[in-house]
Structures
1.
Amino acid sequence: MKPTQPARRQFLWQVGGVAGLVWLNAQWPAITTAAQHAHDAVKSKDNVAFSVLTPAQAKEVEAIAARIIPTDEDPGATEAGVVYFIDLALKTFASGDLAAYEAGVKSVNQLTSEMFPGTTRFSSATVEQQDKVLAEFSKDTNKSARRRQLLPTAGEVDFFAVISGHTMMGFLADPEAGGNRDYVGWKLIGRDPGHTFSPPFGEYDKNYPGWQAEGAAETGKK
Amino acid sequence: MTEQRVSYKTSDEVDFVIVGSGAAGGVLAKELSTNGFRVVVLEQGPYLTENDFTHDELKIFNQHFLTNDPKTQPSTFRTTADKKAVQQQALMYGRCVGGSSVHFTANFWRFHEIDFKERSKIGEIPGTGFTDWPISYADLEPYYTKVEWEVGVSGLAGASPFDPPRSKSYPMPPLPVKSSGVIFERAARKLGYHPFPAPMAILSQPRAGRGACVECGFCLGFGCEVGAKSSSLASVVRMAEKTGRCEIRPNSYVHKVVTEKNGRATGVMYFDAKRNIQMQKARAVILSANGAETPRLLLLSASSQFPNGLANSSGLVGKYLMPNSGAVSIGLFDEPLNDYKGHAVSRIFHDHYELDKEKLGFYGGSGFDARFDITPVAFAFNGLPPGTPRWGSEFKKAMKHNYVRTMQIFGHGTSLPIESNNFSLDPDLKDSWGLPALRMTYSDSPNDLKFMKWMSERGLEILDAAGAKTKWGMPIASTNFAVHLLGTCRMGNDPNSSVINSDHRTHDVPNLFLCDGSSLVTSGRGQPTMTIQALAYRASDRITTLAKRGELAG
């Protein structure tokens, strides 16, 4: 994700800068289809076959996503079905990222075996080891020389940025489109999936006495 | 309603063809058809209704479900005219029946008296086209009131000491306060400001067959599934159709205003849904296509008679683009605000509406609001404080803790009108219909950058006074993206320095009118839609008068 100028009224993709927005805008449709696929896949008891990823790649992608949004006392990327979202994304709106995934998974595995000899796959490392690998990997993707070495075919694409973006989408997209299974993402962040709310909404408007003109000012006034 | 819908043949010479069904086009359609005229509205986007709307942020923001799509309608951007523009999405607008009023936040502030005569008060600002309007607040007041009562605005009259005079109170009480509003109100009062309930184009009570807001929390970017947001779609477009004299024709992408030898407009040419070219004949043409597409259409309508584009004898079509200044400050609080629920804004203040140029060293005026309108995926990308880890346990913990405890202070303000900030036709890039793409040339002036930095500091002060645990400001830099598309076919009495007169009639073509954000002379304080609609009501009266006098006949 290239840094870019903030765009003031770019909806709220804007609020944190527009890196996210620009990246998201660069993607093309079908993202909801991908989300639906994730929804269906995790909902069904049987595993849905992957469309693009090989089973071996999918296992690594799922393991990486599981460290980006880990499962702890709350569900994480795994429970949200993020790997299925990513798989269909790579078939549809993110097909241009497939090379990055292919190379990226290889690179992550390679880095795992460099850092922890004898462990040839990221998914078979312990979570502590996995976090160390990703810390190293995400750091290195910022260094162009290392990135070229790690991602020989992906040009400027930053694999870690891509997979973390997809993981956030697969975790937090509206389940109406299938993005996060059973609202696990929304439950985590505290977003009530209801469509109708009434006051009080939060802690600060609970005991609000009602709007009053100037006299009600707590302290000094003009 | 459906059974009363009228449809006209393209060969029927209707009284008016209106290009665009948004904030202005919808009002003009309603008013002119109510006044007995036969009207065709050509909308480039689809005719979506409440049942089609969604809470799916990916569909909204990624698939451009309600907005212009940079894949089919690409644009280019450059900071100054000496540079080659590069392809990027430089602007966004609503592309559906109802236009940008479908997806807007619905902050609905009247302009104040000062907005129309600021040049007289402040004096010249060198290097800019800063000037007074040819109309006053008093001219528009009856029409602001009409917007509030017909389109539907909730608010509390007299709540702000800075409010301009009004002839009538709001038709509905304000929407309920949110936690962000309470925090903002208390902090603002500590600082000596005068916060008040935000006027919003959202129904706080059932009205005119429409339901009240259910506080779902999906306003900015989304279409309202219950019709409570007072878009043109939910209000005036339906009134227009009920007259039996107005046809809304969606999927109709206008690319040329046709003129005959005597210099009058005879209709418009457009691509229909199948991309076949059609021509709709009309006695008069009104462009309400927005502050980017209206000037583009005039430039696309160049002919041997009008080599620089239609209605462009001043050379100012597309010039003086004002996107409104803005500054966002974000704060994190101890207890849950749950501000994702409900309409976006519940409290604002206007204490900084007129800033002291001599004292501060810059020109500007602003209004501040409190809100939280960050949807979940966007929040994960960009809503966390600087320095928060981007992945792993700490990232997850921050999302879990912060999402319900975060709010923004949004400072909205003026932009200076500068001729070199503009829309033009890109000489190389075409859209998927083969038409020249929009090229935006824009640099925020040093004045406006200073002003935005000042607004950002005020926002942080408010968060500080509110006791925010953590606070940060969005970086201030010159923008490359416009949503408020203002000033690009400005109104004025002098044909050399404006494109339309105070009747919204182009100086050059007697039966061609322009009414939308492009008509604005100055930018207001960041909430233009209310004024665009008041202008449209007033323009409807002026155009009706001219038509009844026979002045629009060939």
2.
Amino acid sequence: MIHTLILGWVTFVYFASFLCYLLAMLRGKAFWGRLATGTALAGFAAQTLALIMRWIASYKLGIGHVPLANFYESLIFFAWAVILLYLIVEWRTRNRTLGAFVVPIAFLAMAMASLSPGIDNRIQPLIPALQSNWLTSHVVTCFLAYAAFTMAFALGVMFFLKGENSPEETGWQRIRGLIPAPEALDELIYQSTVMGFVLLTLGIVTGSVWAHYAWGSYWSWDPKETWSLITWLIYAALLHARLVRLWQGRPLAFMAIWGFAAVLFTYFGVNLLPGLHTYLQS
Amino acid sequence: MSKKNNAIWSFFSSVKLTVALFIVTAFASVLGTIIPQQEAAETLTGRLSPGIVQILKTLQLFNIFHSVWFTILLGLLCFNLIICSLNRFPSALRQFRRQRSPGRPDAPDHFEPDKQFVTTDPPAVTASRLAAILEKRYGRIERTVEGTKSLLYAEKGRFSNFGAYIVHLGIMLILGGAIAGFLMGFEGYIELGEGESTNTVYLKGTKDTKKLPFMIRCDRFNLELYDDGTPKRYRSDISFFKGERLVRRETVLVNHPVQFEGIRFYQANYGTVPGSRMTMAVRQGRQKVAEQGIEEGADFALPGGKARVKILRLVGNFMNLGPAAKVYISSPEGDLQFWIFQYIGRIVQENPGLLLQMPMMNPGLFKPYVFSLEPGVARYFTGLTVNQDPSLPIVTAGASIMILGLLGIFFYEHRRIWISLEDKGEGTSVSITGRCNRNDTLIRRDLDLLANAAEQNAESSK
């Protein structure tokens, strides 16, 4: 399948892009930064094309559905959403340091999808439970939310790396100097979290409406549902605490990192527990 | 007793409490996913000492999500949410209703302005330049003149201050609706073999049943597979009866429930009815003389009543030749044993002469009859989730309101800008202040834009 081949190559394109972002940060040369953005854009374009091709191919097989139906496709879409959001943030903030922290996450998701032996990359037909118009809206909102939380996580890591600027000019200091100011990071963490939170809420609501159509109940405390609620509660705590200026700066960055751990468990960890969302196991 | 001084009121209206409750609820939910719950807990309790099991049971750790303390936790969250909203809503409403005016009391005159500079232009020129930008980005502008001072004020997105209240209202509707649905509705399960009908629903989580005011019959269950063997479609054709009268026929699919008299039916399960796996047909010449549903150990009489057939074994796949039954025939002429294969036609075609070599495989061994297994006669049962949930419109409305509120928060923010211009003879002293209820970057961008415009114009007019 040509689309799986392209997606395999995109993995390496994102790795190259990550190296360029890293070089841009370490060397402080604008050339590497522009190359990094260009590479990421090229990878993103190729990935979008491959996703469309995969979508069309599924119709040619007579089992047409959006490419959002198994673990492989979800990883690919996650990486796509991460790069999309990152490119928007880069364009809006005109700062490339975030790339060195976010692009490797997209690369890892792609690498896991393409190289992990346990993951089936074939187009599979939709089982009855997934044959619903809610599939697209549920999966798209959830994964865009995960991508926004990935952004908040990377910004949180940057916040801790930034630390306090000391006057002496070492290499490490210069890198720190390139990272945006703590106040700007705090603001960006907040904005990514708000965006992720709105999308996650939409994801939970669409999932719950869907569950009502498919199984006759909105909520069954299945592990995936419960973990999405745990994630929602952590980010709700973060947003409320910032609103009353209870947590700002360090605790906010700290919570963005913990929230992402919950996201990862909701995405991967839950598959270890029994439940209704078992389609993602292979 | 005034609201503000009441210790209980201030405790429950605190956002710190909200944050604490969020974290405690999250932690309890984590426990609920790592400790096996309900039926799953039994394998764990078998390995622990009875004392520990008793403690865990008292703490309701094997049914956290339905435990008293978890319910109290959720109740506290709701209570906190209501009190917080009641506490803050009046001031938000006052702020919303307030007249637009540049000199109004909440103008942050007492704060340090965000931008302060002097231009060489006369106040009227600077004012009209800034007003043009403000108008383009904010719409309407309010102006006042007080002696040598003139003030400009503009705002947009005032209603976004209500976003949080709208979200909270939505959440209250969802939770209220869910509780109402739990109290007024029911959730249960029925299992129906093809051709069977019932009006009894087994209620979930209890041993109780509920009688429906109508009968439901399963006419047919059908399972379709993709070429690779994964399930494609589970389909139940059902009929509803009032008394003896057929009222409606419907098809229930996964993701496609059927509603009848306010009660919904969802495709949940299926299986084959035990003892109905195969049918045996007996022919004499071309004429079918008997047909019998069979299971191991069953026996039946052949026409005339002299000979009897006993099913000794039923095998799903015998010697890789497909389904087969071993029969024992007792008759006045003597007893016989042989095998009957469902696919005997194909087997003989592939192995000519087989029936002569192995008479045990000849379905016509007991003359003048020929036995056969009928294909595709397994009788299915369908399992349907049955529920009544009168809260559906409330929950749907709540979810829509919550999402609208969240979008309001996400896409709109309340931005306000105050500009004060003072004639200094030589030029104009300008101070600009901006406030935004959410995103400081956006307002900073607006302030920069205004300041640059005023200063650049000052440069160019030199």
